[in-house]
């Protein structure tokens, strides 16, 4: 057996939204009832109220609600005029939407490898990837930690390309004291239920400092119509429902407390895994990490994951195939070995439960189980 023998079996899911709901049930139920009574299901004061609150929380001038985090990215690209013939640079290691939206906008994704310590795009590789066709950079803040925005912004400004922050996993995260989503031309957020700030379904938000660009996103999300039935642009239907906005407004009041709980849980994991061969997350001293995920590294990740599941511990692999090796991007001509850091992360990373409702007993069980199955006998 490994260094920390596990004696008592326990079942710990990767995520427990029931525990979250139990803690704020009365507030959420009241918010949903308020919307049902109002019968204002599309737009209205709940959506505009959330937009104002998210803008303030994220240190941005404006925020525009939309149907999903994916749509937030796509609307941002379209608002900047990105289309056929353009290139957009992004990370080779992220959720599919970071690259899929580039193709859906009619442009070509250009992938760069990641920093192996943070899993964010390697800012030192960015400038070499920019060509005369590059229109924008989508900088992903993966797992709840901002990428090196100082370096990324400097390159974008030097080469005069737009910067879009993919902050889908990073609401409330900070880089040198400034919130995720506040330093790019646009910030894009997801409210998928598993996020630190999660809706009861899909939802997204675009943040901006520039009023004209924000207004373009606002126009695009409602078929490009203003006034109604008069279409200045060809947009789409990507609105945030009032029910989701009301739920998110309740949760936003708890977000910092939850993020602090995740950070405490991460610190406990760090202590419990200290001295083991298991790779722990790196926290950049310039960043506020909100731990949307707590990701460890193991050379035999798949075997360890199976053994963890046998002992009742839920885990997840984010992400088993890097973007440049996805079948749909085969026409770009990438081969295995092109992005070695992204490929290694896809083979070796494993996300552990990190939600704030975890008890110390559960975290100790998870860490002990992990060490028991991962460490050599």
What report would you give on this structure?
The longest helix is centred in the first third of the chain and has 22 residues, at 17-38. This protein has 2 domains: 22-252, Type I PLP-dependent aspartate aminotransferase-like (Major domain) (Aspartate Aminotransferase, domain 2), CATH 3.40.640.10; 255-374, Alpha-Beta Complex (Aspartate Aminotransferase, domain 1), CATH 3.90.1150.10. The chain contains 12 helices and 12 strands. A 7-stranded mixed β-sheet has the order 1-9-8-5-4-2-3, sandwiched between helices. A 3-stranded antiparallel β-sheet has the order 7-6-10, with no helix packed on it. Helix 6 links the parallel strand 4 (134-140) and strand 5. The chain starts with 16 loop residues before the first helix and ends with a helix. By secondary structure, it is of the alpha/beta class. It is globular, with a radius of gyration of 21 Å. Residues 1-6 have low confidence and may be disordered.
Stretches with pLDDT under 50, minimum 5 residues: 1-6
Largest sheet: 7 strands, mixed
Arrangement of strands in the largest sheet = 1-9-8-5-4-2-3
The SSE order reads HHEHEHEHEHEEEEEHHHEEHHEH
> What is the CATH domain class of the largest domain?
Alpha Beta
Looking at CATH, which topology of the largest domain would you report? Aspartate Aminotransferase, domain 2
Measured distance between first and last alpha carbons: 5 Å
Count up the domains. 2
Q: CATH homologous superfamily of the largest domain, by name? A: Type I PLP-dependent aspartate aminotransferase-like (Major domain)
């Amino acid at each position: 057996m490994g260094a920390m023998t596990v004696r008592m079996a326990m079942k710990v899911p990767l995520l427990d939204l029931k525990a979250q709901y139990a803690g704020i049930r009365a507030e959420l139920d009241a918010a949903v009832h308020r919307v049902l009574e109002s019968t204002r299901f599309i737009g209205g004061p709940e959506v505009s109220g959330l937009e104002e609150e998210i803008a303030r929380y994220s240190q941005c001038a404006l925020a525009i609600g939309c149907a999903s985090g994916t749509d937030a990215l796509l609307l941002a690209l379209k608002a900047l005029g990105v289309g056929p013939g353009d290139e957009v640079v992004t990370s080779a290691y992220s959720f599919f939407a970071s690259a899929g939206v580039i193709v859906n906008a009619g442009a070509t994704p250009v992938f760069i490898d990641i920093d192996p310590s943070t899993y964010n795009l390697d800012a030192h590789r960015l400038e070499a990837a920019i060509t005369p066709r590059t229109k924008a950079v989508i900088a992903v803040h993966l797992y709840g930690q901002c990428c090196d925005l100082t370096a990324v912004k400097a390159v974008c400004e030097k080469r005069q390309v737009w910067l879009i922050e993919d902050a889908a996993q990073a609401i409330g995260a900070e880089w040198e004291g400034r919130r995720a989503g506040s330093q790019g031309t646009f910030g894009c957020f997801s409210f998928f239920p598993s996020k630190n700030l999660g809706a009861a379904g899909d939802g997204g938000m675009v943040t901006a400092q520039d009023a004209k660009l924000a207004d373009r996103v606002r126009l695009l999300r409602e078929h490009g119509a203003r006034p109604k039935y008069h279409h200045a642009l060809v947009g789409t239907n990507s609105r945030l429902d009032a029910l989701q906005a009301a739920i998110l407004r309740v949760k936003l009041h708890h977000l910092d407390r939850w993020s602090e709980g995740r950070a405490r849980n991460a610190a406990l994991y760090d202590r419990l895994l200290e001295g083991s061969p298991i790779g722990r997350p790196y926290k950049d001293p310039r960043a506020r990490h909100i731990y949307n995920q707590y990701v460890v590294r193991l050379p035999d990740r798949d075997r360890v994951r199976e053994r963890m599941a046998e002992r009742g511990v839920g885990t997840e692999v984010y992400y088993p195939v890097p973007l440049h090796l996805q079948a749909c991007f085969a026409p770009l001509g990438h081969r295995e070995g092109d992005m070695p850091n992204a490929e290694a992360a896809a083979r070796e990373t494993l996300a552990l439960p990190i939600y704030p409702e975890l008890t110390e007993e559960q975290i100790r069980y998870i860490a002990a189980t992990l060490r028991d199955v991962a460490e050599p006998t």
